[in-house]
């Protein structure tokens, strides 16, 4: 009677599974990058709802409690005015506020490593200036970053004024930015159902 040895079946299965997982991860990263590719202005819908955008309104709002401030040389995440914020502390103890979305695929910048006057994207390796948010050095220098970074022009992250007030770290943001962004989304949903003025086509 001929018997198949179990270890001979496991090895091809593991190789096949590993290949499928690597393919799935690569496909996900490429799809994520494509989703954030810049679109031309003429592809945007123009509806009555977009005409009602709110004026920019800059003000300081609480982001994180002072007791949650990260140690020098590290970062954490917070929310200010509905915006995702990365609060970073340089080795000397100075506090900075930046947008918490790393271009080009928007992973959290707050997961990155603070290195002197910059913070490094934890996945693609791009370093951003803590003061200006601009790219410092190479754009997307890591392994997968070289593949994805070539699809996009280098772009920095926004920076925000930050201060300590009472028990909170406050960040100055446009408190109408989130509402203006969402107004574009809702107008698209309404256009899919009917006209943005409530009537049907």
How would you characterize this protein structure?
With 201 residues, the chain is α+β, with helices and mostly antiparallel strands. It has a domain at 58-175: Rieske Iron-sulfur Protein. Helix content is 27%, strand content 27%. The protein has helices at 6-35, 143-149, 177-193, and strands at 58-65, 74-80, 83-89, 95-99, 101-102, 107-108, 113-115, 118-120, 127-129, 135-136, 159-160, 162-165, 168-174. Strands 2-3-4-11 form a 4-stranded antiparallel sheet, with no helix packed on it. A 4-stranded antiparallel sheet has the order 7-8-9-10, with no helix packed on it. Strands 1-13-12 form a 3-stranded antiparallel sheet, with no helix packed on it. A hairpin with a 2-residue loop joins β2 (74-80) and β3. Mean pLDDT is 77; it is low at 6-11, 39-51 and 195-201. GO terms for molecular function: 2 iron, 2 sulfur cluster binding; metal ion binding; nitrite reductase [NAD(P)H] activity. Residues 60-171 form the Rieske domain.
**Radius of gyration based on Cα positions:** 22 Å
CATH architecture of the domain at 58-175: 3-layer Sandwich
* Helix and strand run: HEEEEEEEEEEHEEEH
Mean pLDDT across every amino acid position: 77
Looking at CATH, the homologous superfamily of the domain at 58-175 is Rieske [2Fe-2S] iron-sulphur domain
The helix fraction, in percent, is 25-40%
Strand order of the largest sheet: 2-3-4-11
Level-1 CATH class name of the domain at 58-175: Mainly Beta
Number of helices: 3
The biggest beta sheet is recorded as:
4 strands, antiparallel
CATH topology of the domain at 58-175: Rieske Iron-sulfur Protein
| Oligomeric organization of the protein chains | single chain
Please indicate the percent range of residues in DSSP E strands (runs of 2 or more).
Answer: 25-35%
Poorly predicted runs of 5 or more residues: 6-11, 39-51, 195-201
Class per helix and strand makeup: alpha+beta
């Amino acid at each position: 009677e001929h018997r198949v040895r179990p270890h001979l079946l496991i090895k091809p299965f593991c190789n096949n599974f590993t290949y499928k997982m690597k393919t799935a991860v690569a496909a996900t990263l490429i799809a994520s990058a494509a989703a954030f590719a810049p679109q031309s202005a003429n592809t945007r819908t123009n509806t009555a709802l977009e005409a009602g955008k709110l004026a920019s309104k800059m003000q300081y709002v609480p982001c994180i409690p002072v007791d949650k401030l990260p140690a020098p040389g590290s970062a954490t995440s917070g929310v200010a005015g509905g915006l995702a914020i990365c609060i970073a502390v340089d080795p000397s103890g100075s506090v900075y506020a930046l947008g918490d979305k790393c271009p080009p695929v928007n992973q959290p910048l707050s997961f990155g490593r603070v290195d002197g006057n910059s913070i490094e994207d934890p996945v693609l390796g791009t370093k951003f200036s803590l003061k200006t948010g601009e790219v410092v050095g190479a754009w997307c220098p890591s392994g997968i970053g070289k593949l994805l970074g070539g699809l996009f022009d280098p772009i920095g992250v926004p920076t925000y004024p930050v201060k300590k007030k009472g028990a909170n770290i406050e960040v100055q943001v446009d408190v109408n930015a989130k509402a203006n962004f969402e107004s574009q989304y809702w107008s698209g949903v309404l256009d899919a159902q009917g006209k943005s003025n409530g009537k049907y086509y």
